[in-house]
Fold:
Amino acid sequence: MAAEAAGAAPAHPSLRRRLLAFLLIPTVLLMLVVSALFYLLMLKYSNHVHDMDLKEDTLGLAKAVNDAGASLPLPLQARRLLEYSSDGRVFFEVRSRDHGVISNSAQPIPAHDAPAALGRVALRDERMADGTPVRVASLIVPSAWEANDRLTISVAETLNDRHRRAREILMLMLPTELLLTCSLLALVWHGVRVGLRLLQPAVRRLDDSQRDLSPVSGPDIPIEVLPLTQAIDGLLGRLKQLMALQERFVADAAHQLRTPLAGLSMHVQRAQVSTRPQDTAQALQHIRQLTDRAIRSSTQLLALTRAQAPRENIRPLLPLDLAVWLPQAVAERIPDALQAGVDLGYDDDSADGGPAWVAADAWSLRELLDNLLDNAFKHAAGSMVTVSLRRQPQHLQLALDDAGAGVDEALLPRLGERFFRAPDAPEGGTGLGLAIVASIAARHHAPLRYRRSALGGLRVELDLPASAAPPA
Structure:
């Protein structure tokens, strides 16, 4: 069981759950905050109403005291009427400046020394002797029986009724608030479902693209998902290009290898049935030639496929000093030139051999040079081939001249086509060498030209964009 649990694939994250979590949880929290704020607002309103009542009670007590005159303390009936409350927690006190407490309730109200304006009700918060919080209203009035005396009339009530009324109002509003919250949550849930349904066109196109690799993006794709569908389209485009290259490679391989393989089969049968040693030797010689041709064809097909691959799948272009790299690459082909009887030379227009930096892939550029030299060795055997480097303001020109028979002017535009060979071309070619050269030149953004050479044969010019030297 542990092994199964360890090997189980991790659960995929759910976009629906994440969206609902991001929307529902803040919504619920917001409604709780709104409820708390609403309760505080109701409590403030309840406090205001009770404060107004408390002021009226204080003014009423002051009038009763003045009416009673010297008969204080208040009669028992007036005391009971004043102390009456729904929860029985109202307190009062009448204090004379000269004579102290004249009348009060069972529990005295804490004394307050802060000055108050004459004839104006002042409110404050206090705590009774038992710790009960109360709201106190105080009023200073002249004494009705002593001209120089002042009476402080105080009425206090507990906060229980204030909080109870605020809770009652909140409970009245709570069903409406719950209904609003549930409706909002339902709308969020439905909105997420409808929003995710907008991804269905992309999913359907992606399913359809398994057959034809068609793009997924369209006018009905939401703009928020457009970067994802565009990335998928890019991937499908590269995959389509790779599949096209694969199909072309298979077709080209079948085209190029059909004749050598048929010849191999024929000469093998000839060697098997022949009783004469010279016929067997001749058949083996043909088999070797056909094998070399098949190997060369397959090698060039692979090179052409690599050169035509999408840029994401090939090497990056890096700074390369042609003044150093090119003569070394030419020198390595001297043995092949000697075998073909070719006088291979190199020419640099810089007297001091200064640097010539380009952005290039050295491996593919070597493939280009080798194909140009192989083509020149075949068409200019026994003559002269020169590789030159010329520096221009915006580019560096790599050129190859041969002293062969050349190519007819009318056929120059067709050089570089796949499997194209001039009518007077030597035997053994595949027609792929210059196609490889054209593909590599296009990858390097280097214009490629064919023209008549001053040596009498063909001149190939490749203009590579100049590049800055790499930092030391």
In short: The mean pLDDT is 77. The chain has three domains: 18-166, 226-307, 316-465.
